[in-house]
């Protein structure tokens, strides 16, 4: 499962990739669906793609400028930490 | 006037419906739980900035991130419920500040998935209106919605909350908050509350611009005027800070009462309900009350527990929406900084 979070414009120069392992496939998917609905606030200049495969959430960025990339990655890390804390406090996922 | 109703007001439903609501569109973060018209819990925290400073999106989001899980735990504990008792997870979709909205939405999406419950994105303004209707029992009021981010006169007609009048620039609460910053009034518990207390100590009216334009109001010119005059008048001793608080309140509240009365005349309405953070100002309630008495109309207002942003208001609007069959798919659960009250189809009223 993969979600494109924004469009890349022109030739992207800088790339960043993260792989986050979760205890299970279900949790990786929950994180994906909690973190992917909101678009990048900035229009253009940055592209972000998220996917969950098995128990791993993978995120890749491609941006024109380091500054824009840093802001986006920084904000993602804050949000990811919040998802992980929420899972710790209110998980594990309920049985179907 | 501010009594909590204890009986469900709606048609019977096979089982009780419990909705948890997450609110964090501005500097308050709240989580509330509502079960069929009864508020079971409604804890809240406020991000308070030093005098002279407003709250900025990223700092406000950081505040919310730091306390949201504690507030959520409190909400469940105070309600005496476990996640299994919840039927639906509601959160504020907008309008509001982007970063704080995202922070709270992320927690709502995560718990909805962990607990396997449906998610529901709620319009913040609709939350205020539905909370006001629940608490006051007003059936079909003309609504004055006044806060730090919004100023609207609203009436219900044919499945929409229609905006009859609104600010053409800044919200009335924003005008008050920024005036408070100019003369360094404390933001604790809120600038508006402190202005209200200071205004009680004066009865000397300094004339300020009065800007009603048809059904709409404007506050930016008044703010510029007092910003410029404040230091001059205070420095020369021509008037006191209390006099300015008093005069500003009298001026902006008179404008709000005027457009509310005009909307009532237009709709033939005999009820007024004040919602939003500025709505807990007793002087505004008093001035509105005088107008209502002259027209033989009834005034409904709530206190700071429900006027000021809170989680239960999102739960209550979510309860109405959920019971009328609405849910929000995860992929559609993005937040939006702009989200007008009249964009929402009111599927839960005739």
Automatic annotation (TrEMBL), chain A:
GO CC term, one of those recorded: cytoplasm
Keywords, ordered alphabetically: Cytoplasm, Nucleus, tRNA processing
Entry superkingdom: Eukaryota
InterPro entries: CTAG/Pcc1
Compartment(s) of residence: Cytoplasm; Nucleus
Matches recorded under Pfam families: Pcc1 (PF09341)
Keyword Nucleotide-binding: no
Biological processes annotated in GO: tRNA processing; tRNA threonylcarbamoyladenosine metabolic process
Subunit and interaction comment: Component of the EKC/KEOPS complex composed of at least GON7, TP53RK, TPRKB, OSGEP and LAGE3; the whole complex dimerizes.
Family: Belongs to the CTAG/PCC1 family.
Known function: Component of the EKC/KEOPS complex that is required for the formation of a threonylcarbamoyl group on adenosine at position 37 (t(6)A37) in tRNAs that read codons beginning with adenine. The complex is probably involved in the transfer of the threonylcarbamoyl moiety of threonylcarbamoyl-AMP (TC-AMP) to the N6 group of A37. LAGE3 functions as a dimerization module for the complex.
Designated name of the protein: L antigen family member 3
Organism whose genome encodes this protein: Lepisosteus oculatus (Spotted gar)
UniProtKB/TrEMBL annotation, chain B:
Signal sequence region: none
Stored PROSITE patterns: GLYCOPROTEASE
GO biological process, alphabetically ordered: tRNA threonylcarbamoyladenosine modification
CDD domains in UniProt: ASKHA_NBD_OSGEP_like_euk
Binding residue positions for substrate: 145-149, 177, 192, 196, 281
Keyword Aminoacyl-tRNA synthetase listed: no
GO molecular function per UniProt: metal ion binding; tRNA N(6)-L-threonylcarbamoyladenine synthase activity
Database matches in Pfam families: TsaD
Family according to the record: Belongs to the KAE1 / TsaD family.
Cofactor: a divalent metal cation
Listed PANTHER family: TRNA N6-ADENOSINE THREONYLCARBAMOYLTRANSFERASE
Domain of life (superkingdom): Eukaryota
Coiled-coil residue windows: none
GO CC terms: cytoplasm; EKC/KEOPS complex; nucleus
Protein known as: N(6)-L-threonylcarbamoyladenine synthase
Free-text remark on how the cofactor is bound: Binds 1 divalent metal cation per subunit.
Residues binding a divalent metal cation: 124, 128, 145, 309
Class of this enzyme: transferase
Residue ranges of every copy of the Gcp-like domain listed in the record: 44-315
Enzyme Commission number(s) of this protein: 2.3.1.234
Catalytic activity as recorded in UniProt: L-threonylcarbamoyladenylate + adenosine(37) in tRNA = N(6)-L-threonylcarbamoyladenosine(37) in tRNA + AMP + H(+)
Alphabetical list of Gene3D superfamilies matching this protein: 3.30.420.40
Key words, A-Z: Acyltransferase, Cytoplasm, Metal-binding, Nucleus, Transferase, tRNA processing
